[in-house]
Write a structure and sequence with these properties.
352 residues; globular
Length: 352
């Protein structure tokens, strides 16, 4: 039997968050900025990060792990439901709104800057609450948050009633699995990508109930499979769609259980720099896309347009990541502290 729950360490998971955020940043650099005739037609990275959007797969698996770990003691305790909702809502909505509402204001003032798919009035109205008929947001990358909110809502039922909530979670996962047979699920809440949350919850149960043998090998296997899948997607285009997401999710599962077990045994720890990057991963994820778009437009004005593409690539990458780190330090982190103080005054337990 594995060691008690409270002995689990998460520095490697924080580092993984940071790496996943970087993958998404470099994916958007290649897919939306470089190789786009509107900006630079040349692909500076040679398509190296064409799989970078699968950093989301790691985020979803990690989310399932963390939510179950942080709120397991609250399952079946309806008096805890209010604080569960408060903690989840404050964690996801406040930083999101700080990016979303200024972006909406910009698109209202300058409609030509936004694509119709994200700047229409219908999408703007659908964006703030992260619920609705589709998963489009004026902040394009926030499509993932619609899935997060769905997961949080279903998990919240388990806080109200453990039995009913567990049955609902299992039914939801089965419905998402059945959606694999369809190329177009009826609704984003039934999208097969939601299976990754279930993988994360299973990972948490596995790591607490059992001791993982040769954990560093398991972790390295997960990393190798993730990278190998990236190479296949990048250059051969042999897999894609839901199959790709599920496979990346499974490799993230191995990486996660191996990494947590290795860290619990004191076999490995994450570098401080990557942990700090992981702390700011949500902020980087939220701000990088509008910052990349803004900087790309700035570098196409006047003499700046003569900057060689590789240098522009480095400037945009540095600018987007730095903007996320600054947003984390000046906005997200202070908000988290205030929320923690408020929870302390109210007698609430801090969320992980």
């Amino acid at each position: 039997m594995a060691e008690p729950n409270h002995r689990l360490q998460f520095t490697l998971l924080q580092a993984g968050r940071g790496v996943a955020a970087l993958l998404v940043v470099f994916y958007h650099l290649g897919s939306e900025i470089f190789g786009n005739p509107k900006f630079w037609s040349v692909r500076v990275d040679g398509g190296l990060f064409s799989f970078g959007h699968q950093g989301v797969a790691f985020f979803f698996v990690l989310s399932g792990f963390i939510i179950l770990h942080a709120h397991l003691d609250e399952l079946g305790r309806p008096k805890r439901w209010g604080q569960y909702v408060y903690k989840r809502a404050m964690r996801i909505y406040l930083p999101y709104w700080l990016v979303l509402f200024p972006l909406i204001a910009v698109y209202i003032a300058y409609p030509a800057l936004g694509k119709p798919t994200i700047s229409s009035p219908a999408v703007m109205l659908n964006s703030p609450l992260l619920i609705g008929g589709n998963s489009r947001s004026t902040l394009a990358v926030a499509w993932t948050l619609f899935h997060e909110v769905t997961f949080y809502a279903i998990f919240g039922v388990a806080v109200l009633h453990r039995g009913i909530g567990t049955a609902l979670l299992i039914t939801w996962q089965l419905a998402c699995a059945l959606s694999l047979a369809s190329l177009t699920p009826l609704h984003y809440s039934l999208d097969p990508i939601n299976l990754l949350f279930g993988m994360g919850m299973i990972a948490r149960l596995v790591i607490v109930r059992w001791t993982i043998p040769v954990p560093r090998i398991v972790m390295l296997a997960g990393m190798a499979i993730f990278a190998s899948l990236g190479a296949i997607v990048d250059y051969s285009h042999l897999i894609g769609g839901y199959t790709s997401s599920i496979l990346f999710g499974l490799s993230s599962f191995l990486l996660l259980v191996g990494g947590v077990e290795a860290e619990r045994r004191g076999l490995i720890t994450a570098p401080v720099a990557l942990r700090r990057l992981g702390d700011a991963s949500y902020a980087i994820y939220l701000v990088h896309f509008p910052v990349l778009s803004m900087l790309a437009r700035i570098l196409h004005v006047g003499p700046l347009s003569d900057i060689p593409a590789p240098i522009a690539y480095l400037l945009l990458a540095t600018g987007a990541i730095s903007a996320g780190l600054i947003f984390h330090q000046l906005a997200e982190k202070p908000m988290q502290r205030r929320i923690s103080r408020y929870q302390g005054k109210r007698g609430l337990r801090a969320a992980l």
